[in-house]
Amino acid sequence: MAHMPQCLDRAASDALAQRLQSLIEAQGWGVWAVALRESGVLIGMVGLHRTALDLPCAPCVELIWRLAAAHWHQGYATEAARAALDFGLTVLNLPEVVAFTAVVNQPSQAVMVRLNMQPDPAPFAHPALPVGHALRSHVLYRMTAAAPQTVKAA
Questions:
Q1: Which letter does DSSP use for residue 90 in this model?
Q2: φ and ψ at residue 34, rounded to 5 degrees
């Protein structure tokens, strides 16, 4: 949550998990829990979400990931995001999937590059963050169904 506006308390986290589960039940896809294969330990979430935000790419389906800090820089985000991206483009036949993050979030941008997503030329102001907020300036990356879907080496 280093590049998110705030951490969620337990009640807000549980409410988010319930909303995400309801979306999966309603549409058959969404944001899924990510667990380690070896132990089954939950380390975060990755998936696809139709954003309701007024973004330069709206309406859109975004690729999202949030992993516990202890599991950063180990390839889990790229692996899980690749699976979700492939699902969106090949199973759901989406014409495009986007990902966006704060300009300062270099690790997430590196994941987007490894996924071979293409950056938009200019940053945008995230509509849910106030003017002057350190995370307001965002970058947008895209993957279209017609683009090559190869993962670059870490």
A1: I
A2: -115, 125
